[in-house]
Known about the structure:
5 helices; 6 strands
Amino acid sequence: MIADVLSEASDRMQKAVEVAKDEFASVRTGRANPQLFQKIMVSYYGTPTPLAQLASLNNPEARTLVVTPYDKGAMKDIEQAIRDTPNLGANPTNDGNLIRVTLPELTEERRKEFVKIVKAKAEDGRVSVRNIRRKAKDDLEALKGEVGDDEVARGEKELEHITKSHVDQIDEALKRKEAELLEV
């Protein structure tokens, strides 16, 4: 039973780490990356639809991304959604068949803003992992009547170890993203 609680907590913590890493990928660095556009929602015939479902994204140059819509009728909506996306600063150009998005160079001030955003996303990830730990700890406490106190204490110790490893993964991803953002 204790192993089940720990296994479930570990799986949920791993998912929280993956979500944090995905959030980091959505913050732009100096390079154009198709992942930046994964979370962009386009109003497609009145329905919010992810950009990745409406167009293919290619990265021909370091700071340029080419968006090729599957439906040419959605070009204006896609262009508007990209233009309206906060923290992107992109200005898309439409040539009738595809949309070119050139990302401007990041200033030092803008890079520091992005580092703050990434740190906030990392803290959200850590909080998520800690909430999972709290629930697992409550589940372990509920098992005290069924299994011995020593086993519950051992389970809690293992839970702390699992939590620390997942928080460390988030911190490591944060360090990499921070270095990537501050690199000129």
